[in-house]
Amino acid sequence: MHNLIVLIPGIMGSVLQDEDGRDIWAPSAAGVVSFLRTFGNSVKKLGDNPGKDGVKAARMIPYAVVIPRFYKIDGYSRLRTRLSERFDSAAARRQVLGTSSRVLEFPYDWRLSNRVTAAHLKEFVQANLHDWKVRTGATSAKCILVAHSMGGLVGRYYTEVLEGWRDCRALFTYGTPHRGSVDAIDTLSNGVDRFGIEFASFSYLARNCASIYELLPRYQAFRGDAGDQYVADVPGIPHLDQDKARTALEFHFEIERAAAANSNDEDYRKDFATIPIAGIRQETNQSAAFTAGRSIAVSSRLPVDMVEFFSSGDGTVPLVSAVPIGMEKSFHVNYLKDRHAGLHNNPLAQEQLLDRIGQIEQPDWSSYRGAGIGAEAAEKRARRMQQLALDRPGIRLSLKDIYPSGERVAISAALDVPEPGFDHLQAVLESVNPDGSRLEAAMQKDGEEFHLMLPAVPPGLYRISVHAPGAREAISVRDILEVMP
Length: 485
What we know:
Elements: E1 4-8, E2 14-17, E3 23-25, H1 32-45, E4 56-60, E5 64-67, E6 71-74, H2 77-87, H3 90-93, E7 103-105, H4 114-136, E8 143-148, H5 151-161, E9 168-174, H6 182-190, H7 200-206, H8 210-213, E10 222-224, E11 227-229, H9 242-262, H10 266-271, E12 273-279, E13 287-290, E14 296-299, H11 319-322, E15 334-336, H12 347-360, H13 374-391, E16 395-398, E17 402-403, E18 409-415, E19 426-431, E20 438-442, E21 444-446, E22 449-454, E23 460-467, E24 476-483
Parallel strand pairs: 1-7, 1-8, 8-9, 9-12, 10-13, 12-15, 17-24
Antiparallel strand pairs: 2-3, 2-4, 5-6, 10-11, 13-14, 16-18, 18-22, 19-20, 19-23, 21-22, 23-24
């Protein structure tokens, strides 16, 4: 059975063009700082009148993007290529006339409310699914949605509130902040221009994006005098509009109510699944509070009522947020010891995704059975697999998002499950630009941690990966960073 596969990028993961077709948000391999220095005024204008300025999404961003202390993505071209190689015909991969890929990209205007984008996704799926059925004769085909970060919120609103599950077989969400991210409080209140004048235009834009308000935590993540509170209930947070925050909170409540209602539908339970992939064991902001000067500080300190199990995340999205409400005990949840920017590019995660989609596309298996292991035994086995993922060694990585030009690149790492006698971590820093530089070096052990100070590297975007060549299992972690020009 050949279903359509639709990729939904995260926030800032789509190129935006003005009404004349000129790119106004399209960072390249040179990095977002260079882009903002050239197009900063155009980026600031993106915040003037979102949704009413003629701006359109043109395509998904292939390169990495870094907005310090808010969000990073490692591009989507590699995931798109892997899916096409596995599921497209040879003719479609060669773009032969008359053939087309069944792996589709859904770029969108990421400034708008995810409600609006979900409605556009519904139109996109219906139109393309109808066309696919007519051209292929695959009358029972549906869609498989693969979403990264905020794209998962778009997918959830579409499948749950707009009942898009009827046209879909699965929604995979990689590092989706189903319950929000504390980093959104930091960005809205403190802005990102403190990292350089180049980012002033983005601070203005962020505060005018409904989507970023919908990334605010929907749990009580603000530590105040009255105890832990919802962000929308806290007066006096600088630059944060409480009415927008309340509207954003209702967005999450809509999904929760719709999902609970859908779960009573037998066809929903039988024919559709949401499959979250949660990054874990990376230090992640968990709460916010006022400083003595009444500005906002975010930290990895847990809210009072949250247990230690939730003390990590993927560096951007807390673990508690990466799993949708109602799925806390679901064996569909997958755990991955990696960082937010590249969860969708993690080699193991990609292999599992390809296998899962391949499984979904097999014909009815029901006639191939023996005595069966039963639902209870199957659930126990799935839970054992979850526990194995949690117990498997992983690497916790710490680094800056952006390094000034000429500054040495310092990173640190540690095994989350220390192994006695283990003393070797290897780091690789590689330019996003295929023609760029590549450095590899052993990290120096200091107690339970490993450190590396790389010499000054040329400006641009880089992928950093750390692996443990001598560990019992192949483990690694990856992220992206930018060196300012």
